[in-house]
């Protein structure tokens, strides 16, 4: 029969192991954020089911792996392009009708 403290020690060791795997996933996202990443691929790399990875990642970091990837890409965008994401594509037309330019009458 095992001593009760052994079970707690084993659970604590498993928790630390899980946190280390989650940290490796987060580090991979930080390194490879420009590459195509999805939760299934990240989970395979961490040797975890995708659902478990998503739940544990959210508990550890406050957002899902997908949300973390998206946020990471947005924060790195200005560094790589030199512009914030909302100014990278020029506006080609009016956004609302009130902003439409007054059309000059065409003379025949």
Provide keyphrases for this structure:
108 residues, mainly alpha, 4 helices, 61% helix, AraC family transcriptional regulator, Homeodomain-like_sf
Task: Produce a short descriptive summary.
It comes from Streptomyces chryseus. Residues 23-73 form the HTH araC/xylS-type domain. It is built from 4 helices and no strands.
How would you characterize this protein structure?
Residues 79-108 are annotated as: Disordered. This is AraC family transcriptional regulator. It comes from Streptomyces chryseus. The chain has one domain (9-84). The protein is built from 4 helices and no strands. The protein has 108 residues and is an all-alpha fold.
Count of the domains: 1
Which spans of ≥5 residues are poorly predicted at pLDDT below 50? Answer: none
C-alpha geometry: elongated
Helix content: 55-70%
Q: Please state roughly what percent of the residues sit in beta strands, choosing from under 5%, 5-15%, 15-25%, 25-35%, 35-45% or over 45%.
A: under 5%
Radius of gyration, whole Å: 24 Å
Structural class: mainly alpha
Topology:
Blueprint (H helix, E strand, L loop, with lengths): L3 H29 L6 H8 L3 H12 L3 H17 L27
